[in-house]
Amino acid sequence: MSSTRTSRHGSDPVGSASTVAPGDVLIRFEDVRKEFRNQTVAVDDLDLEVRKGELLVLVGPSGCGKSTTLRMVNRLVEPTGGRILLDGADIMSTDAVALRRRVGYVIQNVGLFPHKTVAQNVATVPGLLGWDRKRTRARVEELLTLVGLAPETYSKRFPHELSGGERQRVGVARALAVDPPVLLMDEPFGAVDPEGRRRLQTEFRRIQSELGTTVMLVTHDIDEAVLLGDRVAVFSKGGIIEQIDTPLRLLSQPANAFVENFIGAGRSMRMLGLGDVARDDLRSLDAVHPGAELASIPLGTTLDEAFAELAVSETGAVIVTEGDQPVGLLTADDLLSSLRRLVAEDHREALAG
Ligand SMILES: Nc1ncnc2c1ncn2[C@@H]1O[C@H](COP(=O)(O)OP(=O)(O)OP(=O)(O)O)[C@@H](O)[C@H]1O
């Protein structure tokens, strides 16, 4: 995907017209309950705050109430108790159709209109809002470029002429069309093959932070949760939040056995995936024996990738480079120090606020 920035378009009743500053609460669940007609209580007594500009991931086992929680925000499911405030206003006193135009929604398999072209799909909400043709066209081109689909190649294609990953990109572009202040995503990358998924996830993370969109994303995949989330809420049955924390804190300090169990055995490796090799953690190149043949990795390599290199290194060390210059040596001990630094920094941030 390109790094094109999109400009803000259209009226934005919850975003630009709002008094909510980045980091303040944009969505607030207060004692929210959803009991379906068959008496299933999907969510009970839920209190949750989503801060403006954050990507909050809801993760948990199947049937624990994640999708129900998400779908209550745009009133696809109506709460039977408590209230949900969006920018201070109770969603139940907001017109449901108007609400859904302002709150983007992306689901697995996207649900693109099969008989409409890519451009027409992306233009759906601008069309409903009565945007003129020129403005709509410019926005569609801007968004397709943003999600990495060259408009000249893709605009006129139909959904069946796209790969799963491309369809998912169109779904994201469509949801972003009128620059919604809130984007709800339910297993958005679930139908994409594992390799394409990691790329889409990383690209989506970049787009989200560029646009500053507030995102609630549902997944059952803990790896996706820790890769994408600013914060991650771990749910258990009945919409109970067992822990809500930064990915690192979740991995380093699971609140209870349920969370620990849900995170599973790959906890340490997942933690390593959250950090990068930094200059401060390296030791001097003087320690390298003349004639030793060492593998090299660039500064900024993730710690899990560095670990994989160290695991196959006969000397137990790798050279770290910047550009084509070696800048230091990394050993398993240094990797451990990096991880400790990461956890300590996260802990300090938590204490600070
Ligand atoms: N329309 C409905 N009518 C009755 N029960 C429902 C309805 N929708 C969901 N449920 C039930 O509510 C509970 C929570 O469902 P929900 O879809 O929110 O879970 P989830 O955590 O998103 O699960 P998954 O990861 O499998 O999608 C489940 O027990 C489900 O069977």
UniProtKB/TrEMBL annotation:
UniProt xrefs under InterPro entries: AAA+_ATPase, ABC_transporter-like_ATP-bd, ABC_transporter-like_CS, CBS_dom, CBS_dom_sf, P-loop_NTPase
Signal peptide: none
Superkingdom, taxonomy of origin: Bacteria
Domain ABC transporter as annotated: residue spans: 27-263
One Pfam family here: ABC_tran
Enzyme class of the recorded protein, top EC level: translocase
Residue stretches making up the CBS domain: 288-345
GO molecular-function terms, A-Z: ABC-type quaternary ammonium compound transporting activity; ATP binding; ATP hydrolysis activity
Keywords carried by this UniProt record: ATP-binding, CBS domain, Nucleotide-binding, Transport
Listed EC numbers: 7.6.2.9
Zinc-finger recorded as keyword: no
Family indicated by similarity: Belongs to the ABC transporter superfamily.
Protein name as it appears in the record: ABC-type quaternary amine transporter
